[in-house]
Amino acid sequence: MFHTVLVANRGEIACRIIRTLRELGIRSVAVYSDADRGALHVSLADVAVRIGPAKPQLSYLSIEAILDAAARTGAQAIHPGYGFLSENQAFARACSDAGVVFIGPSVHALNMMGDKIRSKNHVAESGVPVVPGVSLPGQSDEQLIAASEGVGYPMLIKPSAGGGGKGMHLVERAGDLAGALVTARRVASSAFGDDTLLIERFVSAPRHIEVQVLADNHGNVIHLGERECSLQRRHQKVIEEAPSPLLDADTRARIGEAACAAARSVGYTGAGTVEFLVSDAAPDEFFFMEMNTRLQVEHPVTEMVTGLDLVEWQVRVAAGETLPLAQQDVVLTGHAVEARVYAENPERGFLPTTGTVLRLEEACGEGIRVDSALTPGLAISSDYDPMLAKVIAWAPTRAEALSRLDRALADTVVLGVRTNIEYLRLLVQDEDVRAGHLDTGLIERKLPGLGFRAADDHVYAAAALFLHAQAWSGENPVWSRPSGWRMGPHRQARYNLAVSATESVDVRVEGGPDAASVAVGAGEPAPASLAEVAGRPGAFSIELDGVSRVLDLVRDGRRLWIGSDGFSVDLRRRSRAEQLAEQLAGRDRVEGAASPDVRSPMPGTVIAVHAASGDLVEIGQTILTVEAMKMEHKLTAATAGVVSVTFKPGDLVKLDQIVATIAAIATMAEPDDAPMV
Description:
Layout: E1 4-7, H1 11-23, E2 27-33, H2 40-44, E3 47-52, H3 63-73, E4 77-79, H4 89-97, E5 101-102, H5 107-113, H6 116-125, E6 133-134, H7 141-147, E7 155-159, E8 169-171, H8 177-192, E9 197-201, E10 206-215, E11 221-233, E12 236-242, H9 249-264, E13 270-279, E14 286-292, H10 299-306, H11 310-318, E15 335-342, E16 344-345, E17 351-352, E18 355-356, E19 359-361, E20 368-372, E21 379-380, E22 387-395, H12 398-410, E23 413-415, H13 421-429, H14 431-435, H15 442-446, H16 457-472, E24 493-498, E25 504-512, E26 515-520, E27 526-532, E28 539-544, E29 547-556, E30 559-564, E31 567-573, H17 576-585, E32 597-599, E33 604-609, E34 616-617, E35 622-628, E36 631-636, E37 641-645, E38 652-653, E39 658-663
């Protein structure tokens, strides 16, 4: 067994691997970029080595930096986790050349199965059914367009070298194919360093089912059952479960053997996953999609139903041990479901978010597991993937597991950065999800009907009373407290709370915070009070007009973060100067007219500017492209006129920051319309 293993990754997967290494008595080495100096995986490891700046190409994707860290710390093996270098053939080869064990499959297996085109053609030659499409290496956009004529629409563009849904594009009309190929190549090149693409016919209402395989260096290959991964958005898995509610025992055995055969064909070793498309209408039919030659994000659900630690067996296999289990020894017990918690805003098209974790509570209890790298004070930047944590629930039945997961998500508190927790709860509660009626397009169909909560009177009242209480505090001199005292009737304290760059609500408070009168917006004053909840730091009980609720609340400067049961919102107290500036800016604007300001809907980096200051632009014309967490977003003009652009490529932008303004062109009167003298 190894005495020292380096973990070439970050975030929750690095923490998860380090914990298993500790249980095995193996010394762990973490690596970190400048952005991750205070990250949890750094403090969990026995040794940590800085490998470069935040940019992944100069740190986590730097083979030279990783191997140098291994040499400096005496690491005998490297666990790559997933993403980054986990499926990189050059990295596996470099490890071998340096005398360091790569905890993963051979270079041959990576070469054959790590490329979607090569793997698809390989299994097709072995008689495994594949989805019709164009999978030839080295094809230009023009060649792909020509060859795709016989595939049929809709079709799916996929990067050959990547995974995780990045760079995948659904094309429904021939006229959209050329533009989608350009975007797909750019994303594939940026994310994977390879812009090779393939095209497949898009199978409507498919189920995405994958099989976990485990193989040693002595010819033993077994599967550990399947995972249902059909709940996806933009080809990115959101909720996964094991086993699938679709498959019967016979199909489970056949699809499992097909996965093992695929692994044997390349001499696979370690943990890997073979992904299939399964017809919902004909669940006994399946089509090979690809093989992921690494640990999967969703591996915990398999661990929960089998009782096996996949990371442990990755390490043991890499050290030369033999698998102790035969296929008949694998038993699936109960049901497990996993939800991925992301730093994203579902109400803004799931655009990535940034911030600092100001308050954190993670779920616990019977059947609950949380894989996370979150800590209070952790800065969430736009440099890396937006996944923050995974919440997993196990129970004897699927219905119980879903209920436990819902409760665990409700108990999860992350304030300081917007997350998708409320959205995950809405999915888990959906009738079709509960019934197991799943397919990869379900989320897109359901999304318009999901009822996201908005800040209500209790939330606004709690925010105002919290600010009021701090101003009322004994630390402030009596004359600076918002008592409203004056000759005659007392004056109300006013708090203007912005929920976005363009929306705000006035809250009027009279009296002390423990016995006040509060009016939200144009509403009538009502009795209200705010009090801390005993034994729960950061939790407050807000009573408004006789109705009480408990909310989590934390302040960061002028911004307040409030949450409960998975819902969260951030409110910013606006100054009088800001309110006046907004009134002056909008005084000449026609009511209901589109704003001349172009704002960034997410924090990120400007990667392209499509219009120069002074250009005449039309409604819908793209002005800039902003990238964050490997996602691109085009910012367009909401009104026509002359544009003034204030940013250039490489500049960083904040959420809701104005990046351009458009001045309307005054209409000149035609001669015939000139007034008579």
